[in-house]
Design a protein that fits this description.
This protein has 823 residues and is of the alpha/beta class. Helices cover 42% and strands 17% of the residues. The chain has a six-stranded parallel beta sheet with strand order 2-3-1-4-5-6. A hairpin with a 4-residue loop joins strand 13 and strand 14. The protein starts with a strand and ends in a 7-residue tail after the last strand.
């Protein structure tokens, strides 16, 4: 052996380092490039140690990284982790680069039995492969267990047929515009409407509120489905046929959302049934969803009824596509796992988490899952009776023959959905068997666009490092401000030059990435911290329900004032945006505000019911202030190779972890402010009044003025645009200057949609609403311009009008909330 021998491991270094650092015998070190470009890697620890394990992660410049490693290490072997817990993409390039810089050093590629994805990348490169049966590769205690997946079908025919129709229409649009420049946003919008509806297992109203409260901008935006639909409304496609198809897609999506607002989908019923069957049985159970954000959303929904099980670990919610989430929950095998949403063809490894795995599908998804289940079954089981795999002996790739039986199927007919009404659909099912497979395969997240134009509601900043970052105006950002020793979490719309952004290594502000290590440390060293979190989250329920019950932020502000609680409307708006954890006034103030809001929400009636919630809010905010005092100094120290961090916290948190994914950037200037109205004095009623005072072509009835006063709609700029459209484009239609199609296109570009009337059913059920008296005659006010499909008055707006032929004016009869459409 040479003087120093190293084992190089190419993997997801951050997650592996967190797991392996406690094993002193391994001598684990994490390889990172220096902060200054071209300065090589940061000096490794333990330079005189005989045996070290160096964890390396693929970068954009693997050649430079391998060059630096060739002089800083002496490897006796190299392991490339090609499992889902390591790195699976770009594998061929890494292996070829390793072969150039480390000639003669044995390389072992870790993969799984039947992993065709990895095999295709390296089929012409001669490296020894170590394959293991997936069923026992994750946990030592599972070595003799072969997983047995089960296909659960929620027999919700209504939701199933709507999804088929929506997916088929979306696919035809994407095929029609494939390759057209500047239309990637349309494809992304279609996918972001369909994908969450497929996996929906919570009320759609809860999903929309959660997405609205946790908005983010950038190349991977997070926002409600109704906002994605609004984006599609503004899209202009190259042909009339594709434009008509998009209009039909939007109408179908709006109808489906409207139906779901008062309904319950089959997958939601199936999750409840599954939990009833398997909780309190002494088993360790979990629910697997698409990613970490989806897991947080589902956890928030289940917290009300399953808080005890979630807190003590008997029930877990796992993001199966998030390595961070997998490592957090993957220390021991599960007894049973419920997987929601379609799996990729190569996603069969997710079955290895539990001895028994249930894959929840609708009927159409099950066709796709059954087909791939024929190969999943043998790939998961592998050579489960063979003990030789543990010897690390190289193995040849063997084609895993598909099973004849596939996955066993169980149909839950009692999970058929519950809806107020049903919409009739005429579906033309293709006879091609591949049609279902293509239609129901998982939707991939599109790659970020470097040339993407910022949206109107985004804040774009330029930092002193010369980098641009974009955030949604209501996205919550962690910043550090000079003169303030605490860490502030503010909405992006409040950013100012001089603020120091605290970002993760991809330039984002992912809270879970940002403070995960520090919060984990805090949780470990703070008694009952998870209980504090559980109680503090109830504030989100209080404020969300109170805003909805009072008809918006302004309504809640007035209700608080009437109840004797004095607080300015800007503060209430900040509460509604969930920009901070609780009201945060400290002590008795926190208790008073929490009770006032909770009482208006209808969720509590006694002050004693919110005492624990208020105490938990104060405890967590105090903890965050303490973290904020240390974070700036800690991050800066961790990023400097010549600075050592001491103290008891350094024993639990390695500085390399923090420096590896957290950095600071100070804002030099704001490039783009969001196109929103900042004047608190403005209201929908004042917008209408101001326009009428100067209008030549539009008048409004007293009924319209009253409806504007009662509305809580917040996007006043769009409401003003609605009046401008009536004043010009739509007036030109009725006076014969332009065609109605031209006015509809103008509305779509402005983010509004036009409806020429209400359905016969709606007209019959609500004749007194849509047939009104005007100048002694009955007029139909079914024609309307609309914004949003939600019934939340803050995000939904309708303007109903009719044409007065005698006066040649457009008469507005309603200017506010969504009018009733069914009983």
């Amino acid at each position: 052996m040479s003087e120093r021998q190293d084992l190089l491991v190419w993997t997801n270094r951050r997650a592996q380092f967190t797991t392996l650092r406690e094993d002193k015998a391994l001598g684990v070190d994490m390889v990172r490039s220096s902060s200054g470009g071209g300065e090589g890697i940061i000096p490794l620890r333990n330079p005189d140690r005989i045996f070290r394990t160096l964890l390396i992660q693929m970068t954009q410049n693997n050649i430079q990284l391998c060059s630096d490693l060739s002089t800083a290490s002496s490897p006796f072997a190299i392991v490339v982790d090609a499992t889902p817990f390591g790195k699976r993409d770009g594998l061929r390039e890494v292996l070829e680069t390793i072969a150039c810089f480390h000639k003669g050093v044995p390389v072992i590629v870790l993969t799984a039995v039947g992993d065709l994805h990895t095999e295709q990348q390296i089929q012409h490169i001669k490296f020894p492969m170590w394959r293991q049966p997936l069923g026992r590769g994750l946990f030592p205690s599972k070595r003799l267990v072969a997983p047995s997946p089960l296909l659960l079908i929620a027999c919700d025919n209504t939701m199933n047929e709507h999804l088929i129709a929506l997916a088929e229409k979306g696919r035809s649009i994407k095929e029609a515009i494939a390759g057209s420049p500047g239309l990637k946003s349309v494809i992304q919008g279609i996918d972001q409407v369909i994908s969450p509806l497929r996996a929906l297992c919570v009320p759609v109203s809860f999903y929309e509120k959660y997405q609205d409260a946790n908005r983010r901008g950038g190349p991977y935006p997070v926002k409600p489905i109704v906002d994605w639909i609004d984006d599609l409304l503004r899209a202009e496609l190259p042909s009339g046929q594709s434009q008509n198809a998009l209009d039909e897609f939007i109408l179908q999506a709006e109808q489906l959302l409207e139906m779901l607002m008062e309904g319950e989908v089959g997958k939601q019923q199936a999750v409840s049934k599954w939990l009833e069957e398997h909780q309190n049985t002494g088993q360790r159970i979990a629910i697997g969803v698409a990613g970490e954000r989806a897991s947080v959303l589902l956890t928030s929904w289940l917290m009300n009824e399953h808080a005890e099980e979630l807190n003590d670990g008997r029930l877990r919610i796992i993001g199966i596509n998030s390595s961070r989430d997998l490592y957090r929950h993957g220390h021991e095998p599960l007894d049973r796992l419920l997987l929601i949403a379609p799996l990729w063809a190569q996603g069969y490894w997710a079955f290895a988490f539990a001895n028994n795995t249930d894959l929840l599908c609708y009927e159409s998804e099950s066709v796709w899952a059954e087909r791939y289940g024929l190969s999943w079954q043998p790939q998961v089981a592998g050579d489960s009776d063979n003990w030789q795999w543990w010897s690390l002996a190289p193995s040849r790739y063997q084609y895993v023959k598909a099973s004849e039986k596939g996955l066993p199927i169980e149909r839950w007919t009692d999970c058929s959905g519950q809806y107020v009404h049903r919409i009739k659909l005429d579906l033309d099912h293709s006879g091609d068997g591949d049609w279902f497979e293509q239609l129901m395969e998982p939707i991939a997240e599109p790659p970020p666009s470097t040339s993407r134009e910022p949206e109107d509601d985004e804040v774009v900043v330029l930092t002193e490092a010369g980098l641009r970052h974009s955030f949604h105006c209501r996205q919550r950002i962690y910043v550090y401000r000079e003169g303030d020793s605490s860490l502030d979490r503010i909405i992006a719309g409040d950013l100012v030059p001089g603020d120091t952004l605290i970002l993760s290594d991809d330039g984002g502000d992912d809270t879970a990435d940002l403070l995960r290590v520090l919060i984990d440390y805090t949780q470990t060293n703070t008694e009952n911290y998870e209980s504090f979190q559980m109680f503090a989250r109830r504030w989100d329920d209080y404020i969300t329900h109170a805003v909805e019950k009072c008809g918006g932020v302004d309504g809640l502000h007035k209700a608080l004032a009437a109840a004797g609680t004095k607080v300015d409307v800007a503060t209430v708006r900040g509460w509604a945006n969930l920009a901070r954890i609780g009201p945060g006034h400290g002590g008795q103030g926190t208790l008073d505000y929490t009770f006032a809001v909770g009482k208006l929400s209808g969720l509590v009636s006694k002050r004693t019911e919110v005492q624990k919630v208020a105490k938990a809010i104060d405890k967590i905010r105090s903890t965050h202030r303490d973290l904020g005092k240390r974070l700036r100094q800690y991050v800066m120290a961790a990023g400097s190779p010549n600075t050592e961090v001491n103290g008891h916290i350094a024993d639990a948190i390695d500085p390399k972890i923090i420096a590896d994914f957290v950095h600071l950037e100070t804002i030099e200037k704001i490039i783009q402010y969001p196109n929103i109205v900042h004047e608190e004095s403005k209201s929908l009623a004042s917008i209408l009044s101001e326009h009428l005072s100067i209008s030549e072509n539009v008048v409004a009835t007293s009924r319209a003025e009253k409806s504007a006063e009662k509305s809580g709609f917040s996007n006043l700029a769009k409401a003003d645009k609605c009046l401008q459209l009536l004043e010009s484009d739509f007036h030109d239609v009725y006076t014969g200057k332009i065609r109605i199609e031209e006015a509809v296109q103008a509305a779509r570009r402005a983010g509004l949609s036009y409806a020429g009337g209400m359905s016969a059913v709606t007209q019959g059920q609500h004749s007194d609403t849509y047939k009104v008296k005007y100048k002694g005659a009955n007029v139909d006010i079914g024609k309307h311009l609309r914004i949003g499909t939600s019934f939340n008055p803050e995000h939904c707006f309708r303007c109903h009008f009719h044409w007065d032929e005698a006066d040649k004016k457009i008469v507005v009869h309603h200017f506010g909330r969504h009018l009733p459409t069914r009983k």
